Amino acid sequence: MPATPAVTDQPAVPDAQTSASGGDGSPPRRPRLIKTSHGRGGTALGLGAAIIYLSLIVLIPLAAVVIRSTEEGPGFFWRAVTTPDAFAALKLTIIASAIVALINLVMGTLIAWILVRDNFPGKSVVDMLIDLPFALPTIVAGLVLLALYGQDSPLGEWANLAYTQTGVVVALLFVTLPFVVRTVQPVLLELDRDMEQAAASLGASPWVTFRRIILPNLMPAMISGTALAFARAIAEFGSTVLISGNIPFETQVAAVNIFAQIESDNPVGAAAVSTVLLVVALLVMLGLDLLQRWGARRG
């Protein structure tokens, strides 16, 4: 008696050659690739929105200031930025900002190191206080500094920094404190400690380990934070307007000089001084970026 073939519920699988050839002996058909433009369209839309937003918030206002500063011609621009009071304000602002940036470079890195590598009581409170200059209105910061370092300072007469250039530097240090700390701190947190341990096991001293392993990894963040601190310092107004006393040729910073020229109905002169600050900030940030790239190429 012939055997009855087994019956299953699974569908028959067509022969691979027959399926590839279309089942009727025709040449094999290649699978069609469906191209979608969703990713490219989304990228273009996001890029366009970002460019429009940056143009409205940053590029167009800056271009308007630069154009306004040249309305009366190059001669008026030069005279506006070289008047005795404007030149003195620019000189004080740039020198004080450079000093503040260098101090932040060292002390900001040191504070970031302590917050990451050391444990001590009140560490979380100190970490929170670092962001206080970001949250505190700068005019309030100026009032606090004036109360602490003014003529009636609770610290005594030796702490009286009101209406002095030293007071201007202290005010700028206060408002620029977080920049280097907050740029270096994440790099320290992500830094591989195994490299330091390997260097120590090979006999490297702590100084050599820091100079050859830790510092090259921190340098990009240190330079970025220093550039941000300098750019913020040259444009600071609120924290310096009270403690400086706005004495022309002595303690008046560029931002206060710009405000005074606006009040004196000289917007073109104010735009000229603003343009100088803008150019200086861009040049410093560009120079530090080139320095950072040069250091990266040297390994």
Summary tags:
299 residues; MetI-like fold; 72% helix; globular; disordered N terminus
Count of discrete structural domains: 1
Number of strands: 0
Order of helices and strands: HHHHHHHHHHHHH
Give the termini separation. Answer: 85 Å
Q: How would a crystallographer describe the biggest sheet?
A: none
How would you explain this protein's 3D organization?
This protein has 299 residues and is mainly alpha-helical. It has one domain (73-297): MetI-like fold (Orthogonal Bundle), CATH 1.10.3720. Helices cover 72% and strands 0% of the residues. It has 13 helices and no strands. Helix 4 (84-117) runs antiparallel to helix 10 (206-234), helix 4 packs across helix 12 and helix 9 (193-201) packs antiparallel against helix 10. The longest helix has 34 residues, at 84-117. The radius of gyration is 31 Å and the shape is globular. Residues 1-22 have low confidence and may be disordered.
Secondary-structure topology with pairs:
Blueprint: H1 16-20, H2 38-69, H3 74-82, H4 84-117, H5 123-129, H6 132-135, H7 138-149, H8 165-190, H9 193-201, H10 206-234, H11 238-243, H12 254-263, H13 267-297
Helix pairs in contact: 2-13, 3-13, 4-8, 4-10, 4-12, 7-8, 8-10, 9-10, 10-13, 12-13
Quick recap of the structure?
With 299 residues, the chain is mainly α.
